[in-house]
Each structure stands twice: as C-alpha cells, then as structure tokens.
C-alpha cells in the first residue's frame, strides 16, 4: 500500500516489488511525502535493495530523507540522504512488515529514490538492481548465473539493447531485459537464469511485452537468458505453431474508389501473408479472430503485425481468450489473475510485436 503525494512508480506484491519517488529519475518535487507499507507472507522476512538514494544533503537529512521502520522489532533504519547513504546496497530485515517513509522540503537537486524488495525466499535478489551485473568480473564468460528480479522493474529508468533471439548488450538494465525477453512477467517478477557470452556487432531493436529495446552497436559481452538449461531462442520453442484454420467474427468487404472489390477474410491473418490482411467489418463491436491449432498445444506467446505499409492498418491492443473444445472460452489473465490482460499491440503497419504468455496457454483454439 502506498499513500501520499510524493509516490512515483510503485508495484507492490506479497513476494517482491519496486517503488520510487515521484518524477524519478528527474528531480523529486518540493514538499511531498510518500509512505509505503511492505508486507511479506507470515514466516518470511523482507530484503530491501537500494537501487538509488539521491536526496539533497542536509544536516541530519532534515530537508529530504528516507526512513525505514520495522514495527515488529521496533527498529528504524536511516534517515538517509546524499550525505548519509545506506552502508550496504542490501538491507536484510528480520520482519515481514516494513514501512518506507520518504519526505521532502525545499530543495534544488536530487533524483530521489528507487528501491526494490523481495522476501527471504529469494536471497539472490540483491544482484537484480546493479546495472552492471552482467559485467561482474568474478562471473566467468558463459558461466550461467541466476538473479531474482522484483516485480515492477519494467518501468524503471534505463535502456536495453537487443532481443530474445540475439541476446542483450550487457549494459542493458538486466531485469527490464528479462521482461522484454518474456522470461518473467512484470506483474510478479521471478527467478532469471542467464549467462554472459561473446558480444555481437549489432543489436537490433524489437518491441516485445510492452517494451521497446534500442538498436545498438558492438559490445564485448552480451546477456543470454535461459529457461531451465536452454537458451531462449526460436529453436528452444516448438517453432511456429501451424494454424489448421482461421475464423473471425466478421470480415471487411472493401470496395475502393475505383470500384475494385477486396475481401479481408480471416485466412489472410497468417503472419507473413503478402498484401492485405484480415480486418473485421468496419463499425462492429467486440470483433475477434480465431486460430484453430488442430489439436491442443502449449502456446507460449504471440507475434502480431499490421497489414503492410501499402494497406496502413494495425491493431494497437487486444485481449486473448482460449478454448480446448471451441465452446467453453477462458479469458487470459496472466500471472496476476485478477483482470483480463490487455496486450500492447502494434504502433505501425509493418513492424512485428511479440507478447509472451506467462504462464503459457494450453488450448486448441485461441481468440
């Protein structure tokens, strides 16, 4: 739970989370306060990682401060500001409940604060926030290692370069890259296995799981994510699933200005089809496209594309539902499970956008 007018990006779950001050990493505002109450499951304790604490210095941190309190043990940590920073980047508490208090008076500078937390069930979390984790000289090249990424790291400040098939420049924000690669879901975070390998000449950008990576040049090393012991690549999945049949709620019977007829039927929805794609009848509500996979399959993600630059149409967002028998349909709600998940679609008519299903869908029919 967070309260106050000084709260920035915040995602708190029972097992991990990320929080920041308002405007982070821009200068935090004057005369604000935010209180976050962190609660872990009974029997566990909280670990807090200080990603960034940059509050304008003052005597006894009187002008701007970060203060943590442990109500169960009656102890407090801080106050912290630029001239009184935490002595270690990781704070291990003995409590399942911690209150984080941030406040500011008048000031001129300071990025504010960025914190993450996890429970004692995830001791590897301490390596999730340092941006240079991939350049740790103690980690031999290609030696796999594991990190616990907290929930909410998708929207933290920092860039990523690369994509799941290439790997990522080791200067990328690690947990953000893991969300982009579809290894974890941002709503829950999770354990990530990866290795450092030899860098490549060029890292192509891609839009995936609500994040846009950047195009970047050579780096000496790159980060390659793993599922189990296998690297994430097109070969690690069961390849592209064959679609036995396409169906749709409706389709567009187009007649252009020259009187030429064009049918935007469901079968034209196959990725890579030249020319125009599928489109619903204009003006219809709750349109859907249905894919029949022929038999029950394990579906780990979806790639969407617009109708080509010649026919400039695309879908900006969509929901997914699935069925094993074609009669009973289940909306996809992702790892959170509270509301139907809205996937971020395309921003132009030619680029491909990937979205991962975490957990995967087991179904014959997908809408």
From TrEMBL:
Compartments it resides in: Membrane
Top-level taxon = Eukaryota
Q: InterPro entries from the xrefs?
A: CUB_dom (IPR000859), FA58C (IPR000421), Galactose-bd-like_sf (IPR008979), LCCL (IPR004043), LCCL_sf (IPR036609), Neuropilin_MCO_CoagFactor (IPR050633), Sperma_CUB_dom_sf (IPR035914)
Protein source organism:
Smithornis capensis
Give each disulfide bond as a residue pair: 7-34
Q: Which UniProt keywords apply?
A: Disulfide bond, Membrane, Phosphoprotein, Transmembrane, Transmembrane helix
| CDD domains with a match to the protein in the record | CUB, FA58C
Q: What is the lineage of its organism?
A: Eukaryota, Metazoa, Chordata, Craniata, Vertebrata
Positions of the F5/8 type C domain: 229-367
Instruction: Please name the Pfam families in this protein's record.
Output: CUB, F5_F8_type_C, LCCL
Q: Which GO terms describe its molecular function?
A: signaling receptor activity
Protein name, please? Answer: DCBD1 protein
């Amino acid at each position: 739970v967070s309260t106050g007018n000084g709260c920035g990006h915040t995602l708190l779950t029972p097992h991990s989370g990320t929080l920041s001050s308002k405007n982070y990493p821009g200068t935090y505002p004057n005369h604000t306060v935010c209180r976050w109450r962190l609660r872990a499951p009974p029997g566990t304790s909280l670990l807090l990682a200080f990603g960034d604490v940059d509050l304008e210095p003052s005597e006894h941190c009187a002008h701007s401060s970060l203060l943590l309190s442990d109500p169960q043990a009656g102890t407090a940590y801080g106050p912290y500001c630029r001239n009184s920073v935490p002595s270690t980047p990781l704070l291990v508490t003995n409590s399942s409940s911690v209150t984080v208090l941030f406040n500011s008076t008048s000031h001129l500078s300071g990025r504010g604060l960025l914190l993450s937390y996890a429970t004692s069930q995830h001791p590897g979390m301490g390596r999730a926030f340092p941006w240079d984790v991939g350049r740790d000289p103690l980690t031999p090249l290609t030696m796999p290692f594991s990190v616990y990424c907290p929930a909410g790291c998708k929207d933290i400040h920092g860039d990523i370069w690369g994509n799941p098939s290439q790997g990522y420049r080791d200067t990328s924000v690690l947990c953000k890259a893991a969300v982009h690669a579809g290894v974890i879901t941002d709503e829950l975070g999770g354990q990530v296995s990866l290795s450092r390998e030899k860098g490549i000449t060029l890292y192509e950008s891609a839009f995936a799981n609500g994040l846009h990576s950047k195009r970047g040049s050579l780096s000496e090393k790159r980060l390659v994510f793993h599922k189990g012991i296998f690297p994430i690549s097109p070969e690690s999945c069961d390849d592209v699933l064959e679609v036995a049949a396409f169906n749709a709620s409706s389709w567009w019977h187009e007649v252009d200005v020259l009187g030429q007829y064009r049918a935007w039927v469901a079968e034209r929805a196959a990725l890579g089809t030249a020319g125009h794609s599928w489109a619903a009848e204009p003006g219809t509500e709750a349109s859907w496209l249905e894919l029949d996979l022929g038999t029950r399959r394990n579906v780990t993600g979806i790639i969407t594309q617009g109708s080509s630059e010649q026919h400039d149409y695309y879908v900006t967002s969509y929901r997914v539902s699935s069925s094993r028998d074609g009669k009973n349909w289940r909306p996809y709600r992702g790892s959170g499970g509270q509301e139907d998940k809205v996937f971020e679609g395309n921003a132009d008519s030619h680029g491909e956008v990937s979205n991962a299903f975490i957990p995967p869908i087991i179904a014959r029919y997908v809408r």
